[in-house]
Design brief:
Length: 228
């Protein structure tokens, strides 16, 4: 990657995060079970992933056919009601992740796993691209033994791909823990901030990359970026 472009990405990421931090008070997160109780239906299944800043994974999964809702939030740490600020600083040991609510009659968990692997780098620990720290670690949080089994098989399949011939897949596989939904200003971020530098320079390229591979399962990118 061009060093100048990398520097621009780092600067834009810093200022985007700082802007979000400035808007967010300490705390403000709430358990997913509480947040979703008004609209959650047992006809939906849930998948939970982390890997990089949650704005990117959120935007990718929001485009997927069969996905009804995506929440950004924090998982894996010990502190209750973590704030965005504390998680970004790496103080709480949480990962920034997404909770994906999907209709299993329209899309399978296996397909979501495939899209997830296209949307993150499974070979880097405590890092995703320019984002460095344990809060950006890639993990699959399985909700039941069936999800665990599917995830294990998917990781084996991914490891057979030529692009991973000289690399080891280190994406974690962990049992689901409490998912803390981030404050409202962090939900649907790309949709509400299309001109944000982080969205334009980081989220948008990731989205386009996944769409090139799984476009048949995704809405057109114009749903978020109308000018494309």
């Amino acid at each position: 990657m061009n060093r100048f472009f990398l520097l621009i990405l780092i600067i834009s990421t810093f200022f985007s995060c700082q802007n979000a931090i400035n808007q967010t008070s300490e705390g403000g997160s709430v358990k997913a079970e509480v947040y979703s109780q008004e609209w959650y239906s047992d006809t939906l299944d849930i998948a939970t992933f982390s890997g990089g800043h949650f704005y990117t994974l959120e935007t990718v999964f929001e485009q997927v056919r069969g996905v009804e809702k995506v929440l950004t939030g924090f998982i894996g740490g010990k502190r209750s009601e973590p704030s965005f600020e504390s998680v970004v600083k790496g103080d709480t040991k949480h990962q920034m992740g997404v909770q994906v609510y999907y209709n299993p009659k329209r899309i399978t968990y296996v397909m979501l796993l495939a899209i997830y692997f296209a949307a993150h780098d499974p070979t880097t620990a405590d890092r995703q691209g320019i984002e460095i720290g344990s809060q950006f670690s890639p993990n699959i949080y399985f909700h039941n033994e069936k999800q665990k089994e599917f995830a294990e098989k998917q990781m084996v399949e991914e490891s057979k791909k030529s692009k991973y011939a000289d690399k080891k897949i280190i994406t974690g596989l962990k049992p689901y823990d409490t998912f803390w939904v981030a404050p409202e200003e962090h939900q649907d971020f790309a949709v509400n901030h299309r001109e944000d530098e982080y969205v334009v320079n980081v989220v948008k390229p990731y989205l386009k990359g996944v769409e090139r591979k799984y476009g048949a399962w995704m809405l057109k990118i114009k749903a978020i970026f109308p000018e494309e």
